[in-house]
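pinging the channel bc i need a second pair of eyes. not urgent but kinda urgent?? the chain im working w is below, pasted from the shared doc
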Amino acid sequence: MGNPIQNLSAGVVLVAADDCWIEGNAIQQLQTTAALPGMRRVAGMPDLHAGRGYPVGAAFFSVGRFYPALVGNDIGCGMSLWRTDIATARLHLDKLEQRLGSIDGPLEPRWQVQVDALGVEAGAHARSLGTIGGGNHFAELQQLDEVYDGEAVAALKLERRQLLLLVHSGSRGLGEAILREQVERHGHGGLEHGSEDARHYLARHDGALRYAEANRTLIARRLLERLRAEGEAALDIHHNLVGPAHIGGEDGWLHRKGATPSDRGTVVIPGSRGDYSYLAEPLSGDAAAEALHSLAHGAGRKWQRGDCKARLSRRYRPEQLQRTALGSRVICDDRALIWEEAPEAYKPVDSVVGALREAGLLRLLARLKPVLTYKTRAGCCP
């Protein structure tokens, strides 16, 4: 078994074990990004896959200028893990599913007090606060399935007897508006460090980070209210962002696009809706520096969205995809999304996490099993 941290070319590394499939187009995008002016190093994670011109599941370090297009249109997208007081004993999935109803619409006016307390300026995007959005975003009730470090799990106040809630979402239309403004004004050429344009983008970027974190908080609180439960956040971390960094003796900018920071504490790496998720502690050292202090943000796609229905429709009916091999349920009324987000469209999370472990980038604390995944639901339920 070879070293999972592979040097593809000068300044380009890929973290991938022998059993971790990476599509050629994603590697080509990684190499192309490495050639951008001022780019010093790029690192692909085991969940690397092709995006719209730039790869997803990667980190990029540049000097002298940074590139908003590398962060993408979902600034601040990330994961929030919540403790809940929902007992795992005698779970009634029918009752939980019924109580959840739909949270796809705007928050009711009574939520404004909580929005104000979170200190987020939503402006024209206030209607999207507390909503998950499409794509691979979700909220999922989970339970502790296996514990590998009891002390670390106990320190996070996570217990087997109570369900957890994992929320994956970002800045919704706000992030998209920020990127659209940037591309219309400057194209994909990046912004020079210290320029007025750079300061303008960073101010809006940081506002989108606050919006994204507040959005995950409101999603969690909204779902918990529907479930008649209490909860509190155990961790929250962004995986789409850019910020100043000192790497290899140089001051510059570290971009992450679908890459979880490994220098900000405990992380969750989720699988597909029909797979496990892992709670992990990032490790420091030379390997972490090679990987630009980043980790995978999930299992990573292996199929293009447009290919999923053709691949799966002869094997499954849409209703069958609302139940998983692990016994969990999926709430998703969007027929296109139910195909696009099928577990088969993603890599096995064990291959992704295994590569990170083999590379010495993390140690596992616990495995989390899905119970009920919320994607989208039609209608307006009480």
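so The longest strand covers residues 362-376. and Residues 272 and 343 are 5 Å apart (CA to CA). — does that match what u expected or am i reading it wrong
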